[in-house]
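Entry type: protein chain
Record version: 2
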Amino acid sequence: MKIDRLLSIVILLMNRPLIQAKELAEMFEVSVRTIYRDIDSINGAGIPVVTYQGAGGGIGLMEGYRLDRNVLTEHELADIFTALQSVSSAGGGEHSLLMEKISSVIPPSQTAAFRSKTTQLIVDFSPWGLQRPLEERLTLLREALEETAAVSFEYVAADGKISHRSVDPYTLVLKGRAWYLYGFCAEREDFRLFKLLRMKSLIKEKRSYVRQELPLKELPWSSGWSTPSDTTPVVLHFSAEGRHLAEDYFDYSELQPDGNGGYTVTVYYPEDHWLYGFLLGFGTVAEVLEPEHIRLKLGEIAAGVAAKYNGPPQTKEP
């Protein structure tokens, strides 16, 4: 992503007197023209970067200028390093070069302490198992965001309906262990949120777009999803055999002992197919006590699953 590249360039210039634009372009896998646009952005941020022509020339900081290495403390750099590790684990980009550059700023005498700080907290969002199709979509969408290029795909809605979408991508969002794309949909003439796992035949279009300013306080993945009007209270009981699952998924302060080794907990979630699957995933060690309509819905789904597996497979192998 551009911000990663800009910070990496700044750190490189802090540690090297001169560097060729071609070398930077090869390092970050972009064009030389993109590097010069990055230099303009860095200059615009108040860091005087100049280009020296001729033999032995290159890009460097203005002579006599020194960037204060104490703008960020070592503790703050460690926090940034840890955050980059977390984002990379979720498929949000490869940040090894930037992390290496951050490490290079740390004085040798503090290296051991810095390494200790960056391993005290590890947040790994990556799922179990291979996720190559998702990683490929993330890579393509990051390229489209960088180039302000539109994308198109077939989208499978929650009800199974398939529609073609042409979208101007604005933001990749990791929400609730799932990746989403937020962008302007040409078919709906408005901004929409798309789950990456529901995308099929994703391609980058030749059409470019002019990025608008996003209203950050009104984005759909904010707290509005968890307002009382959008959620349903579910009273869930765990038997003694399932108490370990209750303790895995819910805070101990939310769990009410039932006197028999189990727990009762009230949770608030939007009611959709995800919720039904989540509740059924606890198997027989958990039971929904309220509301009644969700109890009935889960009973219908469970009966359908039982009927499917009580006999031979309905679909024969070719």
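Comment: Residues 70-118 form one domain.
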